[in-house]
Amino acid sequence: MNNYYPRIKELREDHDYTQQYVAEYLRMKQSQYSRYERGLRDIPTDILIALAFLYKTTTDYILGLTER
Question: Considering only the top CATH level, what class is 4-63?
């Protein structure tokens, strides 16, 4: 049920954002954000919500619960 790790990477790449850009948006270091994309750390709820706002999508989509 951890399909959201590749999804946040796909969203970032689809928007032509770098990990550094997303990390700065989330006010964290790039290395910390990288751990989320690689599945080494679970994504906290506040970060999940911030990513949904950044990509103008839903948390359900990021979590793989819906395809819309």
Answer: mainly alpha
